[in-house]
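Note to self: the last two entries modelled the partners one at a time, which told us nothing about the interface. This time every component goes in together.
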Amino acid sequence: MTDLLTLSGLTVHHGQLAALTDLDLALAEGTTLAVIGANGAGKTTLLRTIAGTHRPTTGTITFAGQDVTAMPAHRRAAEGIRLVPEGRRLFPSLTVEENLLAGAYRTRKGPWDVPAVVELFPWIGERKRQSARQLSGGEQQAVAIGRALMGNPRLLLLDEISLGLAPLVVGQLYQALPRIMAGGTTVLLVEQDVSQALRTADRVLCLLEGRTVLSGTPAELTAERIESAYFGLTRTGGTS
Amino acid sequence: MVWVNAIVQGLLLGGLYALFACGLSLMFGVMRIVNLAHGDIAVLGSFLAYSIIAATPIGVLGATLIVLPVFAAFGYLVQSGLLSPALRVGPLSTLLATFGLSIVIQNALQQGYTGDTRALDVGSLISASLRITGQISVAYLSLITFALAVVVLAALQLFLSRTGTGRIMRATADDPEAATLSGANPRHVYGVATALAFVTVALAGLMFGMQSSFSPSIGPTRLLFAFEAVVIGGLGSLWGTLLGGMVLGLAQSLGAQYDPAFTLLAGHIIFLAVLAFRPQGLIPARRTA
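The predicted structure of the combined assembly is written out below.
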């Protein structure tokens, strides 16, 4: 299997502060990678840098064999990198259906359209014409995922879809992920909820202060190792 | 009967104001840019048409067909060359940039055309009118302007609600970065919005130029009418802009009927009354940009 996404030597700054330091990552097409880590570990910055809304200081991003480091975010979206951003960021003055259709503004060929998203989240069917600002947090998250899918992404970036939601709602959202992956979409998800991440992903990577401190398949990683890497109790080094 | 006549004329005049104001509303709705050069751009359109009519035999209709695409391109260029860089600095910079544009246009027109007043020659259409009753007759030109205003506003409304570009324009107005994640290039979207705004304002400038005289310095006075129509109707609502234009036209027309000296004052009073008692406007924005 070829790598869909490769990051090499990626360093990203927020002002003076290095949010990510010399990060290397390779993501095989059709797989799911979960990036876990505490607040401020650089998870959101990582996704924003891949999506193109944040520029790296050094390093390169290669997507589908193409160097996209200098490509603006809107063109990356058209090429098939879609980010479901932190905080959902729906368009409040648009209806639910219009939010989905906005996601298809520069879409690729693929299986995702409004009926397919409705099949994934059936409640959307009855509430298409509602304003997006009337939705609950979990519903907004579902529409945000649907909006990203409307672009028929090759790489779907999910930024903490569990944030601020009840466990039951989070469970429902995660139930939709296998159907998304079944379409061949590569998924990179960022999650604070470690158990949810372990259940979903093929591989897990733990970030601490902008560096990879642990990486492996869920089966390889014991709870103890994850815990110590997550909180930085002992440096396990950048194994991969 | 003279009052009924004043009402009819006022409502029709409102169509012109609405046509003139919808571009201002669109630019504010999509980019939060208050275009202080709005009135001058309309006047620039009038002068361009004046020159075309003077230099060629194609007449006012042919001139319109040339002016509108030229202004679409002009709008796109002004957005990408002047307003987009200013937007990155902040909202005050766009205000200053459009103020500067206003001054440049006024002075360039003054230089090129002197301060004389002109009018666009529409031949016999200028005096042709439809007699409804003995005392009420409606000029064809006013009717055409009103119909144009309704068609333009309806087309804009349809564009914003039904087309992919219109939808992403509203999405970009809500959250430019999130729209970027859906593949929208805000610079292009803003360019298209400004191009549309310039086309409508140029069209309004042509209709103004056919119905009354214009001079290089009249832009800011006209801008005030556009502001009043937009604020009375409700910021960001296109049908509100039509209603606002009609209320403004009605107030001016009734004021003029009472005493010609009250023409503009009556419009300003209605505008102030709306600001004081219903600052969200008669039809507040709901879903449109």
